[in-house]
Design a protein that fits this description.
193 residues; Tetracycline Repressor, domain 2; 0% strand
């Protein structure tokens, strides 16, 4: 996708999700999304057939955030520190920019859909980045090699999904990022050397 095209879509998606968070999905109009994004109605309808079609774009918001965070990962960080950094930044973003009702709805659709399950798409940037970090950790001797890279990535992703599901079920009654900060070290305790 050309950079200009990608930038336009990104503006629309980010404006929409910020508005959904600020004033709720039902109270947000396409015209407000267009105004906030600084794009045109033609651009909006080029990418999205309706406001409803924006709901599946949350994975795009996550993709953009991971792309923004990746350059902050350094060679002097352990793989665990890298994974914790990504988790904490993403979960803080979810807490502060994603309406919990929309996240709940999107997560629940993954349970009943017969078609594409975006959260299990191993070609997503998320999985590629996590795999790269885990492989690096195994190469550096930070993570036990007895467990396959695929299994560790699957376990990590499963834990993050479980945390998001629980947070949604409990209607955000606790800090997602703080709770993950306590739980993820327990998960990694067994696979770290």
């Amino acid at each position: 996708m050309p950079k200009k095209t990608n930038a336009t879509k990104s503006k629309i998606v980010n404006a929409a999700w910020n508005l959904f968070y600020e004033q709720g999905y039902e109270n947000t109009t396409v015209d407000e999304i267009i105004a906030r994004s600084g794009t045109s109605k033609g651009s909006f309808y080029h990418y999205f057939s309706s406001k409803d079609s924006l709901l599946s774009s949350l994975s795009y918001v996550f993709y953009e955030k991971y792309k923004e965070l990746e350059p902050n990962l350094t060679n002097d960080q352990t793989c665990f520190e890298k994974l914790m950094y990504l988790n904490q930044e993403m979960f803080k973003m979810i807490e502060n920019k994603v309406d919990i009702n929309l996240l709940s709805g999107l997560l629940s659709t993954q349970l009943i859909t017969k078609g594409e399950k975006n959260l299990l798409d191993y070609n997503r940037y998320y999985y590629k980045l996590i795999r790269k970090i885990v492989e690096e950790g195994q190469d550096r001797g930070e993570i036990k090699s007895e467990t396959s890279t695929n299994e560790i990535v699957k376990l990590y992703a499963m834990c993050e999904r479980a945390l998001m599901y629980d947070w949604c079920i409990r209607d955000g009654e606790y800090s997602l990022s703080k709770y993950a900060n306590n739980v993820l070290p327990m998960l990694f305790d067994d696979i770290m050397k």
